[in-house]
Design goal:
The protein is mainly α. Helix content is about 60%, strand content about 0%. It is globular, with a radius of gyration of 22 Å.
Amino acid sequence: MPSVIKEFTKGLWDELPPFRVVLGLCPTLAVTSTAENGLGMGAAVLFVLTLSNAIISALRKIIPGKVRIACFIVIAASLVVAVELLMQAYTYSLYQRLGIFVPLIVVNCIILGRAEAFASRNGVIPSIADGLGMGLGFTMSLTFLGALRETLGNGTVFGIPVPWEAFRPAHLMVMAPGAFICLGLILAGMNAFNRHMSRRKGEIPTEPKNAACASCAACNLCATARKEN
C-alpha cells in the first residue's frame, strides 16, 4: 500500500508532468487560454493515461518487445477515439475549441513515457496509481495555467468575471507569448519554493562556507582549506 500511495503522489508535485519533468508542453501551451480548456484537456489525458497504463500493464508479458511501442500507440489510439466520441456527444463546443490536440493525445510524451517507463514493467495496481497521479497532476497544472492566463488576459475565471473593478486585463496573456510568460513565472515560483524548503531542511546552506566564494558547489576551496589546516 505505501508503494501504491507513493506512485500516486509523485505525479502531484515531485514529477509534475509539465512543470517538473517538462512533458506534454504542446497542449500545455496551446490550449490553456481558459481554465475550462485546461480542465477539459487534462481530463481527456487523465482518462487515456489511466486506462492505457492499466491495459499495457495487464498485457506486458504477452506484448513482443520489438513491437511494444507500436502496441502502446494502438492501445492509446483506441482510447483516444473513445474520448473523441464522448466529447463529441457531451461537450461538443469544448471538443471544437481543443481541436487537433485531442487526437494528438495518442503521441503525447506523457502517455508513451509512462507506458514505456512504468506500465510495461510493473503490476496493474501500481500502474493505475501512476496513471491517476500523473493524470491528476497534468489536469491540475493545465487548469491552473489556464485560470491564470484567463484571469490576466480576459478578467474572468471559468467565464466568471473577477471581482476587482479596477482590474484591466492584458489580452497578451491569452495569446501565444502569454503562455510562455505564465509558464516561466510558474516554473520560477516552483523552483524558488523548492529551494526555500531545501534550505529549511538544511539540504542547501544559507551562506557559503567560504566567504571568498559565492557558491559552495562551484569549487573545492573549502575542502582544500580544511586539508591545509
